[in-house]
Amino acid sequence: MMATLGFIGCGSMGGALARAACKSIPSDQVFLANRTVEKARALAEELDCRVADNAAVAENADFIFLGVKPQMMADMLADIAPLLEKRETRFILVSMAAGLTIADIQKMAGGSYPVIRIMPNTPAAIGEGMILYTCGDGVTKAEEKLFLDAMAGAGRLAAIPEGHMDVGAAVSGCGPAFVDLFLEAMADGGVACGLPRAQALEFAAQMMVGSARLVLESGKHPGALKDAVCSPAGSTIQGVRTLENAGFRGAVMEAVIAAYEKSKALR
Question: Which of 12, 28, 186, 261 lies at a CB distance of 3.0 to 4.6 Å from 204, suitable for a disulfide?
């Protein structure tokens, strides 16, 4: 069975998932709708997929990806609710809105429709994403597999209880921004010590990619991998000491907690 995917909203996350989808399914099965039509058209030309509007997506797509901001979700769903109610074919709503539960989406959409709640991140655009998802009660195992197959090009996917979605999002969804800050700071440090900026950024970025992959593929605790780099009386342990004196780990933990608490407050 070949599923059609419709994206309402082609911003950073909607666009990233559309790019991922076009790696896994024929691009003519992907439809893009956006409030600014030019943005949808530009992305459709890049991916060789189709431009639509909200109504066309609501009337025809098997998986309807809701890529609008949480504060805009109610109005958007109210607009398409009459079209969803008239549908005779089965469809699944896929929400990526922070703070909105499956029950919230169903209430806004005006029916107990099957919903998959997801929290993706921007690296999904290059196939290195971490997509957390929760299937509502109305989603069958076959439909879950269709969804996973369609999103396979996005990276890793992990099913989690809905109650863990906000905290998971604080780590993997907000995390790229935190990592980018660290990456920029690492490159700035290299520049301060004499490296050309392009080289400093390349070195820092590949270091982060390799370090993350080493954790995933070796299964070793990051603390053990850190210890392996820290020779007695060496330069690395002095850098670690400086980060600890600045409260580095505590600051990162507080950033995750702050993001989690903000997601809860959006409900």
Answer: 186
